[in-house]
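help with this:

***
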Amino acid sequence: MTTSGPVLRIAYLYPDLMNLYADRGNVTCLERRCAWRGVTPLVQRLEWDDRLTGPADLYVIGGGQDRQQQLASQGLTRRNADQLLSSLGDGAAMLAVCGGYQLMAHRYRAADGSELAGLGVFDAETVHPGSDVPRCIGNVVCDWNGSRLVGFENHGGRTYLGSNSIPLARVVRGHGNNSEDGTEGAVVGSAIGTYLHGSVLPKNPHLADHIIRLALARGAPDFELAPLDDAAEWAAHRAAVRAAGLR
């Protein structure tokens, strides 16, 4: 490990509330992949009653159940929305997974008809069709940027994108955003939303590096990420493809 490169400021939002299916592994993956290249990762863990202390280069939030999403929504809207939205508007990057992805869209309508307001980062909304409708569960394989993404999904809500969001990927196997239109996730600027758990980044090293590049684009646009030995990561990726019944 070297320390000659830039600093990458990561704001990890609500790690105790929003950590369904070990989503905290995404932050660990980002930290390690940065440090191995000489990038210094500085992680601010934002708990429920905390305030962001300043702008970050990258915001990461995981998934949670409805109760945890309600608490996270309160923390965001009451204390941190202005700082977060300002940073994203200035080019900061984001990775929002499942429940965090839903919170960063316009709204989430729960199975009981209640609505949870989101921050509107993504032009999208999520509707839960009701407790009698099967959840979207299973291994997912998607086409992305000439390659594949893999992960695991488990969500009741169906997310529909508006005209100002583009899909992150196209579903090859699995449900994706809504099990209807073949889309998975959303992209607006340098913000990425996805339903892929796993955690998603350790077995998708190409996506992890893409997010690191997005996060470095403002402060160190010319910094090149050195290649890493990703044999273990790609082995996990291939195993996930096989688990989805593909080759």
